[in-house]
Amino acid sequence: MPSSIVRLTVTDHDRVLRLLRRVVTPGPSQGRWRDEVVRLLRAHRAAENAVLTTDAIRPAGAEAHRAMADLGALDDALDEATDRLAAADVPSPGLIDLGARIESLLGEHATTLDLRVLQPLEAAVARKEIRILGGRYAEVRDADLQDLGGEEPPPRRFDLPRAELYELARKAGIEGRSAMSRSELIAELRRRTA
Questions:
Q1: Quick one: which of 124, 125, 134, 140 could link to 5 by a disulfide (CB 3.0–4.6 Å)?
Q2: Band of residue 87 on the pLDDT scale cut at 50, 70, 90
């Protein structure tokens, strides 16, 4: 069973913020982190737009629809800042300010989406529906990550909750997964994907 759309969006918002901190910290991999954060932001936004349609959020009520309208201008600014980040030289003097701008916009986006759209939606529909939306969100996001990454598959991220690691282990056919700790699941999944 897929994870809920609430959990997935929160996880993606957190991932973007962690990656963004790596982008603005001088080091040899800044360009790689920048590219990954840009891909994840774009894929996240595309998945939200594809899944959180007017029909999907209808049960959450009129306030959720107003919130989605409010998110429009905010998300346009986030998309513009993402485009600027994608075009920015790494390292560059304005990178820290641009990272702070994206962090601020993403914080507003996440708060509005969670409090005014997803929480009311979660209260209005069955848990199964929230998980179905999560499955659709993950499919669109992962397909978009694949498209944005060209020939390479989307990067394997193991900074997931144990429940999601367990699900990956189940899909990979790892025996004894229920007795494994989070770190053991990560080690086995890395070994299998290396």
A1: 134
A2: very high
